Amino acid sequence: MHRSAAVACAALALVFLAPTSAEAGRKVRLMYEAPIADSGGPAVAVTFQNAREEKKGGAELPLIAQERGSYGIPSGIFSGAMKTDHADVVVANWAADVLRAGGYDAKVGEDASLPRVHVQLTKLWGDGMGPHLQFGFSANLQVFAVGGSEPVWEGGVQASQGVQNVIRMSDPFEDGFSQAFAEGTKALLALMLTPEFQAALPGANAESIANAESIFGNREATIAADKEMAGEEGASAASADGHRTNCTEDGELPKGWETFDYDVYCWGGKSLIGSYIMGGVGVGLTIAGDQIARNNTERHRGITLPVVFSTLSSVQHIPDSGPDDIDAGVAV
Asked: Among positive and negative, which fits the CA dihedral 189, 194, 196, 198?
């Protein structure tokens, strides 16, 4: 088969193999930064409902975003990387963590003996191409009295976050969702202090909320507060539920990740060295293959190619061949 025909076949194969919908894609960790919790307030249950659009996570819980490749063709972004949780667990835990920052003793799950905050997730979606990404997060909230079937309060949280030209070790989709959650946290903290919310679910600690609002998103202040809570032990023993608990030998998480959940960081952080090793092996094999193909081309065909990665930028190393060339063993 002639070289041009081989190239055409390869191009056609790429067209058929390219994902054409959000059903094909990759996984990321869906995560958020939890504000510092208070204690001693009234107990409340937190329940969750997935009410997103059908094609944006409503029919498929792990689907949380799409990224667009060549010609704008989308591929899906799914939660659950490294066995982390999906929206039903993450959003319910997020609401409970924010309620704890407001002084409530929040527990995820049904409990008929407690008032209930019901979180109806209506949007959790990211979209973009390259470094230009947009994220949306919105949820309807309802407060039910003990044994009540009709909400005594209803409100909503909406957040959006645009992330552009992200340069850091983590995945930009992970960054974008964590920032969208951060905006939602600030909105929910503010809602708790409204007279309407307090009438439906009294007991919020205004001082705790003000403190959480003042340091949330300020990593240095949050780390200092963690260490103060933990005493001489430092942030590595900051809380019993694992938030802000360090897992590295020196007791410190990398800069930019100091306040993230222990398990979420350790799932990905511990694999970083392995990723570097496997990446190095892959680069080494690519270089070796390039040099072997280049050497054969110059030796058998008399064609001079660039020294580095010439076989990735041209087709001159692909031999011309035909039905009469079988005995030659090489291209003629």
From this structure: positive
